[in-house]
Write a structure and sequence with these properties.
2 domains, globular, Rossmann fold, 16 strands, 7-stranded mixed beta sheet, Quinone Oxidoreductase, Chain A, domain 1, about 300 residues
């Protein structure tokens, strides 16, 4: 099968097209014919070698950890899914990822794609959508009436988080650049903050929940706007525990734990039109396409999600 692989750590030029063996599903796994995948920061962080101590993979490595496609084969003991079903997933983090024509995925990671949702839109959701859910629902225990600040609401995790928070009945503020204001507000934002013109820490206070997608100074300043008992969830870096104690808030670093049941909940929201994928960049499964996709992700200014189509 065709795959885009890396054979050593480095820049975008390490992404090369190769023919590799099609994987075979083991017990509890299915083989998915890939129709689309999407790009996330973990992809280029692994490529650069930033995560090699955490993820000690042998080369060659197929990057990519979002999948949408059709089941072609099922392994032993698979009883919830069958050949021919349209599925999506955030597969386990192995060296055999989704920049390929086929991918093996554990049954417990899978969810069915609603009939009214195209493969590309489905492929955009798993990693970013479940990250937003885990931060807001599982960690922060969001409830109706909460005031929520989502940093970088025009990004992958951010734009799903806005929609989830609004569905939960929260008042939502977000930071982004002015060029993204119109479409981000269409997602339901109550207070848009153009970070180039306003300092969020000067215009917000008594916030219940902050979702930190940026880290650094933005995370530091976020403590000052949280009310006592507030929650700060970061997907970038562990928050300062001492600062959290000083401000009387709960703060933590959230690392995604993929889960097919959680993804099925997002699928229901997608089916009902309550959760939409905004795709800012589309590319093909090729050396050029994947390299351009990584470049867009590394810019930190991509609109919504970056999707790779196999077709």
């Amino acid at each position: 099968m065709k795959a885009i692989v890396i054979e050593q750590y480095g820049g975008k030029d390490q992404l090369i097209e190769k023919q590799v063996d099609t994987p075979e599903p083991e017990a509890g796994q299915v083989l998915v014919e890939m129709k689309a995948t999407s790009i996330n920061p973990i992809d280029w962080k692994v490529r650069e070698g930033y995560l090699k101590e955490m993820l000690d993979f042998d080369f060659p490595i197929i990057l990519g950890w979002d999948a949408a496609g059709v089941i072609k084969e099922v392994g032993q003991d698979v009883d919830q899914f069958k050949v021919g079903e349209r599925v999506f997933a955030r597969p386990a983090t192995t060296r055999l990822g989704t920049y390929a024509e086929y991918a093996v995925i554990d049954e417990e990671q899978l969810a069915r794609i609603p009939e009214n949702i195209p493969f590309e839109e489905a492929a955009a959701v798993p990693l970013a959508g479940m990250t937003a859910w885990q931060c807001l629902v599982d960690f922060a225990q969001i409830k109706e009436g909460d005031w929520v600040l989502i940093h970088a609401g025009s990004g992958g995790v951010g734009h799903y988080a806005i929609q989830l928070a609004k569905q939960m009945g929260a008042y939502v503020a977000t930071t982004a650049s002015g060029k993204n204001q119109a479409w981000v507000e269409e997602l339901g934002v109550d207070r848009f903050i153009n970070y180039k013109q306003e300092d969020f820490s000067e215009v917000l206070s008594e916030i219940d929940i902050v979702l930190d997608t940026l880290g650094g100074e933005n995370q530091e300043k976020s403590f000052s706007i949280l009310k006592e008992g507030g929650r700060l969830a970061s997907i970038v870096q562990p928050p300062d525990e001492e600062k959290a104690k000083q401000h009387g808030v709960k703060a933590g670093f959230v690392w995604l734990e993929p889960n097919g049941e959680r993804l099925s909940k997002l699928a229901e929201m997608m089916e009902e039109g309550q959760l939409t994928s905004v795709i800012g960049n589309r590319y093909k499964l090729s050396e050029e396409g994947i390299r351009k996709a990584h470049e867009a992700s590394e810019s930190h200014h991509a609109k919504g999600k970056i999707v790779i189509s196999m077709e």
